[in-house]
Amino acid sequence: MMKIDLNCDLGESFGAYTIGQDEEMMKYVDSVNIACGFHAGDPVVMMKTVEQALSHGLKIGAHPGLPDLQGFGRRSMALNPQEAYSLILYQVGALQAIVKAKGGTLSHVKPHGALYNMAAKDAELSQSIAKAVRDIDDSLILFGLSGSELTSAGNEAGLTVAHEVFADRTYQSDGSLTPRSLPNSVLHDADKVEEQVMRMVKRQEVVTASGEVISIQADTICLHGDNIEGVSLARRLKEKLS
């Protein structure tokens, strides 16, 4: 039987602000990527989200981002290798401590937003991220954009790598995600999302925004909890894939 992992970025509320539909999304996914306080989240939210994920029996991953709360970690920032390494170490270590305190085990690491997209194309940045993950725990799985510099760096570092694809995002001809600053970067039509996911899983390919068909490796599928249709899409995809 073919197996596929469904993951979702969660724990992105902080202080008085509630973002996403975490508890509902947890009913339909296999893995969660929990914000670590830099682009979103805070210690209390991190702990609550870990507790919820453990109660649902989900695999827990760290979702470290750039230190840009106002921009939700979606604005690029120049980082040297030491800064990138320390950034990952600091955030993953914080979530790992909470997971351990709650009796769980950290499963994977997935960079967030601009850091994720920068690493997809920047070999040096990806190597710093992969080194940090390996130095924390070489059994951690590194999530990266399918066929990207980040997955290559993970392989070179001796890590287990999960090539990630996106259910509700459109793609460019080089395999990168369409920037959110451009029109039609996010898919909202459930039929189109389902069609894209099934094609990625069954044929290992995706149709780009320009209509080109490119190859893609789908180990794990990302769903976004802050998508207004996130829960209904997750429910529909879980049923379809099952």
Automatic annotation (TrEMBL):
It is an enzyme of class 3 (hydrolase). The keyword Amino-acid biosynthesis does not apply. Keywords: ATP-binding, Hydrolase, Nucleotide-binding. Its EC number is 3.5.2.9. InterPro entries: Glyco_hydro/deAcase_b/a-brl, LamB/YcsF/PxpA-like. It catalyses: 5-oxo-L-proline + ATP + 2 H2O = L-glutamate + ADP + phosphate + H(+). SUPFAM superfamilies: Glycoside hydrolase/deacetylase. Pfam families: LamB_YcsF (PF03746). It comes from the Bacteria. GO terms for molecular function: 5-oxoprolinase (ATP-hydrolyzing) activity. Belongs to the LamB/PxpA family. HAMAP family: PxpA (MF_00691). NCBIfam families: PRK05406.1-3, PRK05406.1-5. Forms a complex composed of PxpA, PxpB and PxpC. Catalyzes the cleavage of 5-oxoproline to form L-glutamate coupled to the hydrolysis of ATP to ADP and inorganic phosphate. This is 5-oxoprolinase subunit A. It comes from Rossellomorea oryzaecorticis. The lineage of its organism: Bacteria, Bacillati, Bacillota, Bacilli, Bacillales. The gene is pxpA.
